[in-house]
Each structure stands twice: as C-alpha cells, then as structure tokens.
# Entry
Amino acid sequence: MFFFPQLPAWLTALAPSTGRYLQSEKWIMDHCREKIQAIDRNYDESSEPSCFVEAYLQEQRLRQSSGGVGSFDNLQLVRTVLDLYLAGSETTATTLRWALLYCSFHPEYQEACHAEIAASIGLREVSMKDKRGLHKVQAFLDETQRIANLVPMSVEHRVSEAVELDGLPISPDSLVLPNLYSVHMDPELFSEPHEFKPDRFIDPETGTYKASEYLIPFSLGKRACLGETLARMELFIFFVTLLQKFRFEPTEDCRLRRDEILLGPDGVVRAPGDHSLVVHKRRL
Ligand code: HEM
# Structure
C-alpha cells in the first residue's frame, strides 16, 4: 500500500493488515474531525491563533474571502492533523518502551541515571531547563535512539530530477530509502555497535555529555522529522519522570526471551517484541 501506491485500493484492502489499518485510520480521522470542529466553533478570528488548527482556519478564511481556499480545504486539514498524530505518537511511545527495556536489562545504567536525577533535581517536577545538567540521562537516551533504530530506513522519497551520488546516477522518479541503520551500526562510527554503551556519548576527559553528529534518528535535510524538538522534549520529560518515581526490572520471561524481544517484529517502525516489565515504586 505504501510502497506500491499505484495498486488499486480494492486490491490492497484485501490484505488483512491493510483492512485493520484502514479501520484504525477511519477511527482516528473521525476523532480528528470532532476535535477540529470543536476548535472551529470556539475560534475567535480576531485573535492570534493559539494552535496549528486555528492558524490553518485563519488562512483558509483569508483565502475564502479572496476567491477560493485552493489546497487549504477541510480534508487536507484533517489529513495533516492525522499525519501529526500518526507520526508523533507511535514513534515517541516506542522509543520510550525501548528506553525502559534497556533500563531493565542494564540496571547499572538505570541506577546511574537515577542517582544523577536524585542529586540534580530530587523529587521536584522536571523541566527542560534541567536537561543540560543531566549528562548520563542524555547519553542514555542517545544510545537508546542509536541502538533502537526506530525508523531504520527512514521514509521513502521520490527523486524529482536526475542526480549523481558518489558517481552513481539516480534517475527522476526513483524511490530512495535513506539507510539510517547503516550509519548507527557502522563500527567505524560507533565501536561495538551491537553493544548498549551509553558512555560512548560521554566525554572521557570531562565526564560530560557529548553529542555525535552521526546520531541521526530523525534523518537529515529539509524533510527531516518535523517533530524532532517535540519528540526530544517528550522523551526527556517522560523518561526522567518515570525514573524519578520507579525502578524497572525484566520479568523472568523477558530475561529468557531477551534476544527475541530485542530483535522485535518486522515493520517500518522498529518496536521491541511483546514483553512485560516489573515496575517497583521508589521510596520517596
Ligand atoms: C522519537 C520520535 C521520532 C522519531 C525517531 C522520528 C523519526 C522520523 C523520521 C526518520 C522521519 C523521516 C524523515 C525523512 O523523510 O527524511 C520523520 C518524518 C516526520 N516526522 Fe518524525 N519522528 C519522531 C517523532 C515525531 C513527532 C513527535 C512528530 C509530530 C508531532 C513527528 C512528525 C513527523 C512528520 C510530520 C514527518 C514528515 C516530515 C516531512 O516529510 O517533511 N515525528 N520522523
């Protein structure tokens, strides 16, 4: 369906997974429509838009008054909101699942992150201002994103005009899949790439967090992830809050099926295999 969009819809709909996908898509689209209608009802056109939907509606009305909405129609609004929901929820939630799984399998790093959080912010609510002081947490999250390879082949792009890449001609209309996995797992860029080693993002001299330009989970270029800033904020706030309050441990089943869980099922988004964790409330 995604890779062969020219196939007739009735043919792709025959696949059971596509049927389920279309059903969920309809459910989310109806939900988006209701939310948009509620915003539309309460939106005061004379004030500054306070969200994406209000900004879109403002532009739509402006165009309406000067002849026609063009591509700013209602369907495009619903589909754009749907895109943001789909691209923004599964990705961040699954990265957090990976982070908690690696916490469980590596209690030494989990404890190091917790100790840093306890020393730096204690029990108060975390804010983005705390990020710069939490070196181990940043390194842990970076290593999670590297090894999880959440979107290993990024998103497919169509080549609009003939180009040459490293002497290789690429013709217009070719489908291109950037292989982010190959960068994250390149032993020349990240030694022992299959090992979970958050310390690779810590400067050995200073003991502080050191970002790597080769960590590219959000891809690169003009069409890189639009939600990167939001995703980074969500990952940091949720992860720190969870570690502040809980300790995570693998179940016996999880320990036994470790390799299978870390491999996960096939998919555009790489998720861990089904598993449960034991969650211990930390003493306040
Ligand atoms: C950890 C979380 C996330 C990861 C790893 C991730 C990764 C990616 C990747 C690899 C792409 C493809 C970029 C390309 O085409 O070259 C992408 C595109 C996109 N992402 Fe994310 N993403 C995440 C979270 C989010 C969030 C929170 C949102 C929105 C709220 C979002 C919205 C989008 C959109 C709209 C695109 C398409 C951008 C375009 O085509 O111009 N993503 N993301």
Remarks:
- The beta strands are 157-158, 163-165, 168-170, 175-176, 246-250, 277-281.
- The mean pLDDT is 93.
